[in-house]
Design a protein that fits this description.
Layout (H helix, E strand, L loop, with lengths): L1 E7 L6 H13 L4 E6 L14 H12 L4 E4 L1 H5 L4 H11 L4 E7 H5 L7 H7 L2 E4 L5 H4 L3 H5 L21 E4 L8 H52 L1
Parallel strand pairs: 1-2, 1-4, 2-3, 4-5, 5-6
Helix pairs in contact: 4-6
């Protein structure tokens, strides 16, 4: 059994994520892809992160593929780092040949991951092309260290059979979609919605005040009219 591990926060998941999973599934000749939705990224601010259950549901709605399994495994086994998650899986699935799937943007920052040099000794790695990051990912600190472990893309189907450290670059997916950009858009829309609500409330208060003043003025004129008639 050959299984690709595709991990991340996926907040929100988008078509480029699905494209990366399907590209790896095809090019690496995988039996399945396990889509690991993480509770949070230790390298990023997670204060505005959507709840894990919502993200898992969003990924499942996006994928709907018979060979892609979506899971919140890390929350269940209480692991925070990729090294711990992969180690746990290897201990419990000794007959499975795993491969770690990640975007070129992650290769660029891979040297910041906890025990990244041990991760590359656990499983083969497939780096999926990304628009922009692909241009300099291979020149990153991790890319330089792992340069001699890289195999040609035409050998990608044999990646899971190779002994780590070994990795390859999968080209063909150049999507500009970004979860970071989509989160920023979501935040702007939420902020805009709040501003509209505040503006609407202020408008209603202003109209109510004006109506109240008109009523008071009308009452005052009525009282003055009655006084004149009395005189």
């Amino acid at each position: 059994m050959r299984i690709g591990l595709f991990g991340g926060t996926f907040d929100p998941p988008h078509q480029a994520h699905l494209g990366a999973a399907l590209l790896a599934l095809k090019r690496l000749k995988l039996d399945r892809v396990w889509w690991l939705v993480t509770p949070g990224n230790p390298l990023k601010n997670t204060s505005g992160l959507a709840p894990l259950g919502e993200r898992i549901a969003a990924v499942r709605a996006l994928t709907r593929h018979p060979r892609i399994d979506v899971t919140g495994l890390e929350a269940v086994i209480k692991t925070r780092y990729t090294y711990c998650t992969i180690s746990w899986l290897l201990r419990r699935c000794p007959g499975v040949r795993f491969v770690w799937i990640m975007g070129a943007d992650n290769l660029r920052s891979f040297h910041r991951w906890q025990k990244w040099q041990k991760i590359v000794k656990l499983v083969p790695i497939a780096v999926v092309d990304r628009l922009g990051p692909s241009l300099y990912a291979s020149a990153s600190p991790a890319g330089n260290v792992l340069a001699r472990s890289r195999i040609p893309e035409h050998d990608a189907p044999a990646l899971t059979s190779r002994k780590p450290p070994v990795w390859t670059f999968l080209h063909g997916l150049k999507s500009p979609l970004s979860s970071t950009a989509l989160r920023a858009l979501r935040t702007r829309r939420a902020s805009s919605g709040q501003n509209r609500k505040s503006s609407s409330k202020a408008g209603r208060r202003s109209r109510a005040n004006k109506a109240s003043k008109r009523k008071m003025a009308a009452k005052s004129r009525g009282r003055q009219g009655r006084k004149k008639q009395t005189r």
